[in-house]
Amino acid sequence: MGLVADLNAQNLSLNAYHFQGSRPMARIYRFLPCFLIVAAVVVGCSKQDSSKQFLSMGTAPVGGAFPVVGGAIAEVLNEHKQAIDWKVQAKGTKGSQENIRRLQQNDLELALSNAAISFFAARGEGTWDKKYDIRAIATMAPNVALFIARADSGIESIADLKGKRVITGPAGAGFQMFIEPILAEHGIAWDEIESINATQSGSVDQLGDGSADAAFLGGAVPTGSITQATSTFDVQFIPFDEDARQTLIQKYAFFQPATIPAGVYKGLDADFQGLNVGSMHVITSASQPEDLIYAVTKTIWNNRAEIAEKHPAGKALNEKNITRDTGIEYHPGAVRFYQEAGLWPSTETGTEAAGTEEKPESDGPADQADADKEADADKDADADKEADAQAGS
């Protein structure tokens, strides 16, 4: 009897457990319709958002011009949507080289790059291991750069740089892609200089204390770092050999003639015949849809004044620059818009192509200089930061 009583007690206990355990399940079943309604709403919202296109624009590390310009373009695109409902986000990256690789991988839809770096990427030359299928959308602000040294350095020509300690831009910025051809055309191999990496402001410090013999500096004209150098010590503006300069212009599409007017920098008593060593430009991958890039190009052009209000580089979005040939094929969507807008240049034979017009000597810094010359001396430090990564970002 004791055993039977124990079994009955256990059975009652189990029945009570099952009864109590059924209460949570009952609650779940009671609220299940609510869960289904919420799920349906979420699915419905996702379907409504399925038409929105999310576009990422690669820029560069904070401190240079690329992040600010990229942010300005993204803002304007978001404020002025075309037929395509897009959401554009500017993303900080390591700069041109990373942007090009990520465009190829479809991690980015749009990007900023230096035209010289893009030039070699499209051909799989220089430091690139393969060809990258990139296309231009819009060519923007020129990057007018040159070698400078202390006036007491004894360096009077680019040929004199052989064996010297020369600052060739920040580490990983890609300046080698346009500095190496310049040196080569002046009879100097890359390994015949001691290449030093530094920012533009850091370059001025190293020139000042003798840690470096020369530096390659540039960006918009006037460039803050060069202005800083001229206010710190007497500067030697190292001239390009004119034959070498003309050969570079003919040999590489991204090189453009650029005259720096006398008086722009302290100690520059005559016009300096220089080079735009690679304009900032907006690029994409060849695989992006034509209608999308058409709409992006149209929006950038029609609202270029707003971009210029956000950053002076936007002033270079003009008839002279925007379709300039830098050696990179333009995306068909961009070409279609420029043709419709009457901005696409034509050859005498009627075959349309970008950048076939003559390159006037003043074409380098003119547009950017007009904006930057309005800034007073107190803004030179800020200009230096903006120009710091512009060339090789």
Structural summary, described in words:
The protein is of the alpha/beta class and 393 residues long. It has two domains: 53-142 and 279-357, Periplasmic binding protein-like II (D-Maltodextrin-Binding Protein, domain 2), CATH 3.40.190; 144-276, D-Maltodextrin-Binding Protein, domain 2 (3-Layer(aba) Sandwich), CATH 3.40.190.10. Helix content is 42%, strand content 16%. It is built from 13 helices and twelve strands. It has helices at 2-49, 65-79, 96-104, 115-123, 176-185, 200-209, 224-232, 242-251, 290-302, 304-310, 332-340, 366-372, 380-388, and strands at residues 53-58, 86-91, 110-114, 134-139, 144-150, 165-167, 194-196, 214-219, 235-237, 256-260, 272-276, 280-285. The strands form two sheets. Strands 5, 6, 7, 8, 9, 10 and 11 form a seven-stranded mixed sheet that branches. Strands 2-1-3-12-4 form a five-stranded mixed sheet. α2 links the parallel β1 and β2. α7 (224-232) packs across α13 and α9 (290-302) packs across α11 (332-340).
Question: What is the gist of this entry?
Answer:
With 393 residues, the protein is α/β, with parallel strands linked by helices. The protein contains 13 helices and 12 strands. 42% of the residues lie in helices and 16% in strands.
